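Quick one:
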Amino acid sequence: MEREKILERFEHETERLAAATALDRAVQTEKTGMPQATDFLDPYQQRAVEKALHLHGDVKYISWGGYQEAERVRVLVFPVVRQMNTGDVPLAVLEADAGSKADGLSHRDFLGAILGLGLKREKIGDIIVADERCAQIFVSPEIVPYLQSNLIQVGSHSVSIREMDVADVAATEPRNRDVKATVASLRLDAVASAGFGLSRSKLAPAIRAGQVKLNWQSVKSASTPVKQGDIISLAGRGRMELAEVRGESKKGRIHLLLKKRI
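Output:
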């Protein structure tokens, strides 16, 4: 199928950009016969990329983020005449250890320290935090030397960096904190306000600026409805899941259980 006809299948700009990148990788693979990898993709981008490659045909692809339940993955596009597996997807993993005296470090702390070095989010995969002091960080291999030289502090703690074998990563379930709340409605601003502990008036400019994402897609309308299972993220504040909608109170407010990533 022609490129433009494929891209017409995608309604949102974020989807089209991800799909266009995938198609570029497919064309390059066909021209050179060499595999081509995307940057790390969130689940929303991943769905668009895999849909575009399926419609394109004429190439194979595999998605991998370093372990079975990885949220952020790279997609490797390769010729149909070749056989490749997850071990061929270009990934590296670094362990950042703040030492036994550190505590309270979160996913947001490690990610913030990395992005503070000027690196782009798409070069970073999942970050697995253990014991609030140590993290295993999946990255594109080309940025490993830079991180080894420059990632020296997370929060107020100095960290040591070592490269690990991807096969040695002990993946664990993400750690969440339960937040029970009541809201007047299942609007984006109401639910985000309850989960992130900010007033709706303070959230409004962040929403208009595209800093709030619903299921990994920027949403600029505060009144956008949300439902059970949706993921809401706020730049600089992390993300949360609307885990349960637990019915209404006698005064008509809606009881929620939110799971906030820590």
